[in-house]
Amino acid sequence: MRKIIIALIYLSPFLLSCNAQKNSSVVAEINPFKYTSSKKVIAENGAVVSAHPLASKVGVVILKMGGNAVDAAIATQLALAVVYPAAGNIGGGGFLVGRLSNGELISIDYREKAPGAATRDMYIDETGKARTDLSQNGHLAGGVPGTVSGLFTSHQYAKLPFSKLIQPAIDLAEKGFAITSGEARAFNSIQESLKKYNSVMPAFVKQTPWKEGDTLIQTDLANTLKRIQKNGAAGFYEGETANLIVAEMKRGNGIISLGDLKNYKAKPRTPQTFNYKGYKIVGMGMPSSGGLLMAQMMKMIEGRGIDKMGFHSVQAVQLMTEVQRRAYADRAEYMGDADHYNVPVEMLASDKYLKERMKSYKNDKATPSTEIKPRIDIDSESEETTHLSVIDKEGNAISVTTTLNGGYGSKTVIGGAGFFLNNEMDDFSIKPGVPNMFGAVGGDANAIKPGKRMLSSMTPTLVLKDDKPFIVVGTPGGTTIPTQVFETLVNILDFNMSTEDAVYKPKFHHQWLPDRLDVERGFPQAVKEALQKMGYTIYERGSIGRTEIIKVLPNGKFEAVADNRGEDAAEGY
Ligand code: GLY
Description:
Elements: H1 2-24, E1 40-43, E2 46-50, H2 53-64, H3 69-83, E3 93-99, E4 105-110, H4 132-136, H5 147-154, H6 162-175, E5 177-178, H7 181-189, H8 191-197, E6 215-216, H9 219-231, H10 234-237, H11 239-251, H12 258-263, E7 267-269, E8 272-276, E9 279-283, H13 290-301, H14 306-309, H15 314-334, H16 345-349, H17 351-357, H18 369-372, E10 386-392, E11 397-403, E12 461-465, E13 468-474, H19 481-493, H20 499-504, E14 508-509, E15 517-520, H21 525-533, E16 538-541, E17 548-552, E18 558-562, E19 569-572
Parallel strand pairs: 15-16
Antiparallel strand pairs: 1-18, 2-10, 2-19, 3-4, 3-11, 4-7, 5-6, 8-9, 9-12, 10-11, 12-13, 13-17, 14-15, 17-18
Helix pairs in contact: 2-3, 3-6, 6-9, 13-15, 13-19
């Protein structure tokens, strides 16, 4: 026995290094300094689509190692936290919607929550002014992060050890990777904010401008990820990482406490499901408005012959705009964290209510938003969020949307821990009746309360055909998220468009207030003019969303398409 113990002690460094080598081999297949990127793949065994080529590649390597779609989704999210720090995160939150190989439908809520010391009026100063500067930037803007708890809650459905799934992220943070041109531009654009909102200068601050191909090494983040690898969720919510978060709060008047962190728990939720033309649509329920808005919008168009109207026809765009307007008016009035506010979900999704809602619809004229619901406006979000879609050959389909809220969240990086803190508190209605940074306001349903989750628009979605995965889809885009997922699905299910066209063709968005129809550049001129004649105010804008989609083809193969509005990438094998 003694001999065995001595031999084990003698061998342990070797065993550990073998283990480390084995873990490192996860990314051996990927060269993070020279990598390709594809917008579309057709795959037989599994596919991953995400905002960054390296993250999608990590997901596929995990599938090849025997992981399922849940394993791949976890590893891809962790990789995104390193290679796509604008929105990929461990300092934010998100939602997962899944269909498991046994047919079970799951959804996991890892939305941030208001710290225990938060108050309803915490962003209102003594003169009554709403301080959106504080709800959007710096330490006080941060909600208690949910992502790490969400990843561990998802892990019960995975096959590989968590330590393996996090290793690629550790390697990418520790050894570095070559940044893309988009990242270089984004890092350059936030240099001043980084200096303003940080007392410990993070790895993203650089004396000379960032350029494509520069190596980004994030040692502090690698060490945080190693603590999570070693200690599980406690490696984030307790011990050194938690202490670093609280120390950062003290440096910048933030209020997240050790107790807030220790008590954070992701919550399994019942997915929001409904049927549309024989398909089953599976989405996220409260505290995301996404699933309910999808149900409302799709049920309001159902039975009106939209397929015959045709893609980008004046009639179809007008009908879809009017259902968007009506659903978003309800979002403002009724939706919030259902654990803290009585959200009438069943009523809002009921056929009876939606039929009633469409009584004021006229097919030749805009319904002014003032006639739909007076006074209360919706709260809007920044459009930086990120989505990943994953599928495997076992029949698991996973749709995840995750966010820091604004690009790089609060712009505060936790000193010594290397990750951005979210600015999700701004997703609450910080003062009823006062417009936030997008000119919108919110109501009671989404008022701040300690421990409450702020209302989200994230819409990770699955479409099932005969109860089997057919489409995995989602997008970033703040309040535009539900309308973009809605349009992508109508493009496929009603207009029979190719997956690429369904994603790439110009989209539009109406959110009740402001009473205007946003259209992407390239939207057909004749349609805009016809809608203007009906009374619509048209606002032309840059790209809306970055949709990541996987569709199962009739031959059973996976068609994975990444949006061409960003550097997003599809991978599969
Ligand atoms: N912060 C974006 C969302 O939750 O909708």
